[in-house]
Amino acid sequence: MKPDDFIATIRPGADECEAEYGIPAAFTIAQGALESEWGGSESCIQANNLFGVKADHFWKGPTISMQTEEVIRGKKVIVPAKWRKYDSWAESLLDHAKFFKVNPRYAAALVYPHDAKKFAFEIAKAGYATDPDYYKKLVSVMRSHKL
To answer: Cα(121)–Cα(134) distance, rounded to whole angstroms?
Structure first.
């Protein structure tokens, strides 16, 4: 999907999540773009999972198992993982917002409901992704697409 089309598709849901849950829309759009490869990743195609949210032991919904790239002790490795599976992108957006609200690990980010860059910094610092450049990549998407 072209970036402009992706942004237009998820912006209404991202705006709603910002208003209702305090998750900055620009962050949500940038993270969705990065994690789903603009809607083209396998987890997005097969599971409507826009954000790479894994299915931990708390998740009671449907799942899909796929390989993923992680950075472990400074090295990129491919490992199996179980991902949350959604019926729609709207469901993925809503679960993403709730994920941050209920997970105490991300509490520091929630004090920045209207500052996408600070929110992204805190999410990266809390270990959302193993990529050491995760924050830089999120900010790059925000800047290059004027989010």
So the answer is: 9
pLDDT per position as a tens digit, 53-88: 989 888 999 999 887 777 677 888 787 789 999 999
CB count within 10 Å of CB 138 equals 27
* 110 torsion bin: left (phi>0), alpha (psi -120 to 50), beta (else): alpha
Residue at token pair 């708390």: 58
- Prediction pTM value: 0.90
Q: Which residues belong to the active site?
A: 70, 95
Q: How many CA atoms lie within 13 A of 5 on its CB side?
A: 6
- Say if CB 59 and CB 19 are below 8 A apart: no
In the three-class reduction of DSSP (H, G, I as helix; E, B as strand; rest coil), residue 74 is classed as: coil
Rounded to a whole number of angstroms, the CA Rg of the chain reads 14
Give residue 94's pLDDT: 96
Amino acid at 87: D
